[in-house]
Amino acid sequence: MDTTLTYSDPYMSVGKSNICDSSGQLLLLCNGMRVFNASGNLIESGDTLVPLAYYNYYFSVSAVTQSSIILPVDSDQYYLFTPVPTDSNFNANWITNVDAYFDELWYHRIDMRANSGAGKVMKKKVPILQHVKLSQSQMMACRHANGKDWWLVKMAIDSHKAYVFNVGHDTVFLQHTIRFPFAKIRKELHGQSSFDASGEHFATMSNNLTGEFFYGDFDRCTGILSGIKRAVAPPKPFSSLIDSSITGLSLSPNGQLIYVVKFSHILQFRISDSTWYTVSGPDTTDIAFQGYKDCAVAPDGRLYIGNYDGLYKNMSVIDNPNGLLSNCNFCRKCLRSAGSIGYMGTPPCIPDFKLGALSPCWPNAVEEVKLQAPYKIYPNPVAKHLLIEWNLNGDSSGVAQLVDLAGNILLDFPFNPGYQIKSIDLSGLNSGIYLLRFISNRQSIGYEKIIKQ
């Protein structure tokens, strides 16, 4: 451990997240309900980031894995996301129902240039998803193929589906909803989602006492999950019980292994042939064993594994998570805290901030060949009708196409010389990003990004 920071106020539990600056210095940390700067002080407007009933019941600290995440979108600008239960949902379901759920997803916009670098929440409690049933956990992000924006993936709880959001420097919107081809068995107790180091593979689990989890391919250009498969972790004996639950999950950096953490064992699942391997079991007698819990690959490439209960003063570490069995170099309780109190039960919820851009895909093309005058397109963002205005001289003519990010042509129309205005009805399209492409003499003359609300 390079640095130990001790604060008197911000208690960090399972729902924590954080982000560092480009030099590796801590910048922001969140406990799922409040956000602090590196000095451990609440930033301005950084308190009560969730509804009041939920906030008060849990004493202003989230006890849910992956219930906050911080994403950088511009210089010193950040989005903080928190899934939440509304007060009406909380009062009706949370106190008496073990299968309680979140029903909204909020974002908060943070400017770290404000207050002379102390930071401020500029926008707060902005809902981007409402009237739904969301997993308490299972939220992770991946860098967009353009190297700037983000994909935020949040799992539902009433069915196996993922809500995929496009997070840009000035917009956040639901790109699409992807349904898994499997029946939902029951709701969750614990859960995690994970991307590999390339961002091209995704895995998720919600502990439903069956040991099931899901994995598939992820397209960083379109945000589409595909090839989704289901697997079930083998039960493991523990004391007089059979441990059929899962408490944590992470893909290896190379995307070839999935680490499945049970209370009593740490397992590897090799994707290529669906083979299971056992990395570790209990390290003491059953009654004294504190249990394994959430896990995550850190920026240093190691996999850190938290504890289910106990004093939370250490984590187990896998130095080489791409290695099979003993080649992964498992080290039990090797990350230790010198602090007298603290919480090391769960790694923080952070994406891979170092992931860069891919070769150009549709959003990159928009920026590289952005449409110029004499075209005007408005309003943009648009809810219903999009107006396209042009005034072309000479023999300029061609065809305009509206396409989605997968390149599918949704509609087209001709454009001819002279002054014209064209109205397009987009009310039947889902919210998201589309591209208006203009082609003349079989060559592209420009694109415009259309944001459908």
Would you write up a description of this structure?
With 453 residues, the chain is mostly beta strands. It has two domains: 17-336, 6 Propeller (Neuraminidase), CATH 2.120.10; 362-452, Immunoglobulin-like. 5% of the residues lie in helices and 47% in strands. The protein has helices at residues 52-57, 87-94, 362-368; strands spanning 17-20, 26-30, 35-37, 69-74, 77-84, 102-111, 120-143, 150-156, 161-167, 172-179, 191-195, 201-206, 212-219, 224-232, 236-238, 241-243, 248-251, 257-261, 266-270, 275-280, 292-297, 303-307, 314-318, 330-336, 375-378, 385-392, 398-403, 409-415, 418-425, 432-440, 443-452. The model is unreliable at 363-369 (pLDDT under 50).
Task: List its salient traits.
four-stranded antiparallel beta sheet; Neuraminidase; 453 residues; mainly beta; Immunoglobulin-like; seven-stranded antiparallel beta sheet; 31 strands; globular; 47% strand; 2 domains
How much of the sequence lies in strands comes to over 45%
How many β-strand stretches? 31
| Architecture (CATH level 2) name of the largest domain | 6 Propeller
Q: Cα-atom Rg, whole angstroms?
A: 24 Å
Low-pLDDT parts are 363-369
Q: How does the major sheet shape up?
A: 7 strands, antiparallel
Largest sheet: spatial strand order: 4-5-6-7-8-9-10
Principal-axis shape equals globular
Helix count from the secondary structure assignment = 3
Helical amount: under 10%
Q: What's the domain count?
A: 2
Instruction: Give the mean pLDDT.
Output: 85
Span between N and C termini? 45 Å
